[in-house]
Design a protein that fits this description.
heterotrimer; A alpha+beta (about 375); B alpha/beta (about 290); C alpha+beta (about 375); A: about 375 residues; alpha+beta; B: about 290 residues; 6-stranded mixed beta sheet; 7 helices
């Protein structure tokens, strides 16, 4: 057909086509945006772990997560681990959530007490903290107005800000670094550490080393960095599954309603045209193709628009709210595509049934 | 090429069952020659539209045969009808029935597509037809922006695009003023002569009698010979003399009227002469 | 000629007739609007419910909380104090009782899934423990655990089940009710158990302080702040408010975005429905205009349709939201959907705004409608 019938019919009433497009895009955007937010959360969750330089993370027995988790090991465990073959470094850290105050501003941070002042994470500005000093994530520092040189309060004590790191801010919280001895004193836990970050010597895999530590050192759980990170991410996943499912259901309902409404009114207004074309010699199955193509095109365009919008959001939002990061995953896009296909299928039912019942003889009826 | 294009034999169409049974077309026989213009007239509900629908392959007859150029379309399988229609028929409708979503040119082009012509060739033929009908300036216009007379010309261009052997027109002049109505009639005449197309027109419009080679009267599903019908001299209505509600005999001539009112009017207008026969006014509603 | 108005008594209810003429379309429109409205209410209800659940524990405790200096909330940060402070706090005038408790987020590993709970360590017999047990007993010996009933049933745990946590085997001795939460269901154990797991014997996270009869909590808190070094004493209500804010605020942004989208969808759907029926009936409207219906009356007609759809859809959406919230609390009690009257009122008002915006486009269409088109073919 050199005349693009489906396209002409679809675009004849521009506002209706636009409304359908917008509605479907909105429904799919709901799902895509939510999944991107949670994916972003999961991704950022392991920012510290990923860049810590550790191959194996050792925690109290039964523990393989960091956020919203408590872990306590005797300090001497670090030496026991360090003496194992294949271990290049065993770095003990203390890890607690803490409220940092600067003047009237307040912010929660995940506070790490280690002996290296935050190494190997690169500094954005300033220097690593000495005793009585603290290294803040840049976003928190900005929010509190606490640049290097200023004093902040946490755990009832004052600390001087020595410098800033960047890239460690979640949707909720951020990281900060102090000397382990400072933190141990404040927590009244001189001989206790939270985690031990282990770096492997060349030649031994992380998995093997983790297994070796597990068997050799009592009362610990050693995880490879990958397994630990995966565990962390699943925390978010497990907690948000139900919400995501509910949102998908809502997106489906709204998408079907909008697509159904649009295809319903479009079909009704085109019934006479179909009768005329059938009388002129259009085959019945081609008439159905034209009807279905209109629904399919609208849903497909709505999907692409939703994708473009969520992509734009992912690009723009971080500059507006640094704590909110959107990550668009291929699996999530595929799922949204499946959702769109479902919407199209249901919305096409009415036009198909109606057009199939068009009687070409009706062209002569008045 | 055989001179007879259409041969209808024993064509019947019945709607409904038992109580609601309606015989719209009853055992109609008809032959149409190539290039012939036939006007079918008759009261509303007489079956004209049903006949036209069956002729155009849009409605299956209950009984009978419809031979178009050697093919009995009443016996064609369902899937073969659409391409047959596209190649062999052209339709002209009272409401024009143009596709609002398509511009003028594409309304004609789509008919060509349906018969198998695509792309530049189809577009060229559409442009040629439309230009020939004076619509060269309107090719890209949306249908909404085109006048009633122009719409009918587009419809006619669409109807003849595939050089059909049979053109079926349903009240082609009903929605046109007298100027455009006359123009449409001339076009139909030209098509029959130049293209050798047979034109069947269903209409109430008396003016079309001027271009028709034959006028048929369809009433109650059957054809009546128009020659047997007479005209009421006062109101001009066509009547069956056997069924006329009122009549007079004047100077050896029988005159028939649609009602006693018309008869009385005639008498008033023509004072003297004639004696009134015993005219029974048929009061039954028809 | 008197204009036909849809509101005057005895006239034909044109708007209603037109809406009812296409039942399938009407139903679909109402469903879409109801879904969008319900979504808005459920999301805001979830937010509020989360806030209420977050402060579940301290809402049941003494009116004054004492934490490490600088601690202003219960959940978000660390507060560590020595046990020895118990006596010092108890001696502050106005204090009837000072009870130490420990508190930690406990990531329980239950058949491969990680379940977050808030584990409270308290002294058996003293305040701070579960306030309602549906079965079993409160923890008395080391290693004993009381779990929230909903959490237990969700994971098939019963009295006698063991839970592995931080290398120790804890035995479930009781199930509590009123302690459910989607982010932080509660669990209780003895303070000695909790401290042993943290390898910090003698550690206290917070003190629960009960003022003497007739002494206002604010006074007691102020006195403690003045007399005891290294602590921050706060009214429980203040702490609860801080907890709520810290927990909820980060989710506000995305939540607000979802709500905005839901509203946009509702407006779109109503506008679409009214516009398409207006466009499809432009002939009828032209006829009405030719019959003498004035422009304003015509606009009122379209407005009536839009308002009718918006209000009905909103009413259905509110009913749907409450129904859904009820079902959710029956089938998944860990989610608390607290739909407040404020939200309902806000939504109802927004429905009117929705309707007016949605009626704008079809109204413009009608304004341009030429009554002579009624005669045109």
């Amino acid at each position: 057909m050199s005349v693009p019938l489906a396209r002409r019919q679809l675009l004849f009433r521009k506002s209706r086509a636009l409304a359908g497009l917008a509605g479907i895009a909105a429904a799919l955007l709901l799902v895509l945006a939510l999944k991107a937010i949670f994916a972003g959360m999961e991704g950022r969750l392991t920012a510290y772990i990923d860049r810590s330089g550790a191959d194996v993370i050792v925690a109290q027995r039964g523990v393989d997560t960091m956020h919203m988790t408590q872990s306590a090991l005797p300090a001497r465990t670090a030496w026991a681990i360090a003496s194992l073959p294949g271990v290049a470094e065993a770095k003990p850290i203390l890890y607690v959530p803490a409220m940092v105050e600067h003047g009237a501003e307040r912010g929660v941070v995940y506070l790490i007490g280690d002996d290296s002042g935050g190494a190997p994470l690169p500094l954005a500005t300033g220097r690593r903290p000495g005793s009585g000093e603290i290294l803040l994530d840049r976003v928190v520092a900005q929010r509190l107005g606490a640049e290097p040189g200023t004093t902040v309060r946490l755990l009832g004590t004052s600390f001087r800000v020595s410098g800033e790191v960047s890239g460690l801010t979640l949707i909720t919280n951020s990281f900060a670094f102090v000397r382990r001895q400072d933190l141990a004193r404040l927590l009244r836990s001189r001989d206790v550490v939270s985690y031990i970050l282990v770096r492997a010597r060349p030649g031994i895999s992380a998995g093997k080393l983790a297994a070796r530590i597990d068997t050799s050192v009592p009362g610990v759980t050693a995880s490879t960095r990958q397994a630990f990170a995966r565990s962390e991410r699943r925390v978010v996943g497990d907690m948000t599954t139900d919400i995501v499912r509910a949102m998908i259901l809502v997106g489906l309902v709204i998408g079907v309603a909008v697509a159904g409404l649009v295809s319903y009114s479009a079909t009704l207004s085109q019934l006479r045209d179909y009768a005329v074309l059938l009388a002129l010699g259009l085959r019945a199955h081609r008439a159905l193709t034209i009807a279905v193509a209109q629904v399919g095109a609208t849903v497909a365009a709505g999907f692409l628009l939703a994708l473009a919008l969520v992509w734009a959001l992912a690009a723009i939002l971080p500059s507006l709210t640094p704590t909110l990061v959107l990550t668009i995953r291929a699996a999530d896009v595929a799922q949204a595509l499946g959702l769109a296909a479902g919407v199209a299928l249901v919305a096409a039912a009415f036009p198909v049934l109606r057009v199939a019942g068009v009687d070409p003889a009706s062209v002569f009826r008045r | 090429m055989e001179p007879t294009l259409v041969r209808i034999h024993n064509l019947t169409k019945t709607f409904g069952e038992t109580d609601t049974r309606v015989e719209a077309v009853r055992e109609v026989d008809l032959e149409l020659a190539r290039g012939e213009i036939v006007l079918v007239m008759g009261p509303s509900g007489s079956g004209k539209t049903t006949l036209l629908s069956m002729l155009g392959g849009l409605l299956r007859p209950t009984r009978g045969e419809i031979w178009i150029d050697g093919t009995n379309i009443a016996a064609l399988p369902e899937h073969a009808l659409p391409p047959f229609r596209a190649r062999s028929f052209g339709f002209i409708f009272q409401d024009f029935n143009l596709i609002a979503a398509l511009p003028v040119r594409e309304n004609v082009e789509v008919a060509l597509n349906l018969a198998g012509a695509h792309g530049a060739a189809a577009r060229a033929r559409a442009d040629e037809l439309l230009t020939g009908l004076g619509l060269a300036e309107r090719l890209e216009f949306p249908i909404e922006k085109v006048s009633g007379g122009e719409k009918q010309r587009v419809a006619i261009a669409r109807a003849v695009a595939n050089r059909p052997a049979l053109i079926l027109a349903d009240e082609p002049t009903a929605n046109l003023d007298s100027h455009h109505g006359a123009e449409t009639m001339r076009l139909l005449r030209r098509l029959a002569q130049e293209e050798g197309a047979t034109v069947v027109i269903v209409s109430h419009d008396e003016r079309l009698r001027e271009i028709a080679d034959r006028v048929l009267w369809l009433e109650d599903g059957r054809f009546r010979s128009l020659q047997a019908l007479v005209r009421d001299p006062v109101c001009g209505m066509l009547l069956d003399p056997d069924d006329a509600p009122a009549s007079i005999e004047q100077d050896g001539q029988h005159l028939f009227f649609c009602a006693s009112g018309c008869r009385d009017q005639y008498l008033v207008n023509n004072t003297l002469g004639g004696y009134i026969t015993d005219a029974t006014t048929k009061g039954d509603a028809r | 000629m008197r204009a036909i108005t849809p509101s005057s008594g005895g006239s034909v209810p044109v708007a209603r007739r037109q809406l009812a003429a296409e039942p399938a379309k009407l139903i679909v429109t109402l469903v879409a609007v109801a879904a969008a409205v319900a979504l808005v209410l459920l999301l805001s209800g979830l937010r509020r419910g989360m806030g209420e659940q977050v402060t579940l524990y301290i809402d049941h405790q003494a009116p004054v909380l004492v934490g490490q200096r600088g601690a202003h909330d219960f959940l978000s940060q660390t507060s560590v104090l020595p046990e020895a402070l118990t006596g010092e706090i108890a001696r502050v005038p106005g204090v009837a009782e000072a009870t130490p408790i420990s508190q930690q987020y406990a990531m329980l590993q239950l058949h491969g899934r990680r379940v977050l709970t808030l584990l409270i360590g308290y002294t058996p017999g003293k305040p701070g423990g579960p306030w309602r047990l549906t079965s079993g007993t409160a923890p008395r010996a080391s290693g004993e655990l009381v779990l929230d009933r909903v959490l237990a049933s969700e994971h098939g745990l019963r009295i006698g089940s063991t839970v592995e946590y931080r290398g120790a085997r804890l035995r479930v001795v009781g199930l509590s009710s009123g302690t459910s939460g989607f982010m932080t269901p509660l669990a209780f154990t003895t303070r000695t158990t909790a401290n042993a797991l943290s390898r910090q014997p003698g550690m206290v996270n917070f003190f629960l302080v009960r003022p003497q009869l007739g002494v206002p909590p604010a006074t007691v808190a102020a006195r403690i702040n003045r007399s005891v070094m290294g602590v921050s004493a706060l009214r429980r209500t203040e702490v609860a408010a801080n907890d709520r804010r810290l927990f909820i605020d980060p989710f506000s942004g995305p939540l607000l975005a979802m709500v905005a989208i839901a509203f946009a969808v509702a407006i779109l759907v109503i506008g679409l429905a009214v516009y398409s029926s207006t466009a499809e009936r432009s002939r009828e409207y032209a006829t009405l205009k030719a019959l003498g219906l004035r422009q304003r009356a015509l606009l009122r007609l379209v407005g009536a349709q839009a308002v009718g759809l918006a209000l009905t859809g909103t009413a259905l959406g509110i009913a749907l939201a409450f129904g859904a919230a009820g079902s959710i609390s029956a089938f998944a009690p860990k989610y608390l959907i607290a739909i407040g009257t404020g939200s309902v009122v806000a939504v109802a008002v927004s429905a009117l705004v929705m309707a007016l915006i949605a009626a704008l486009v079809p109204a413009r269409l009608l304004a341009r409608l030429d009554p002579a088109s009624a005669f045109r073919r």
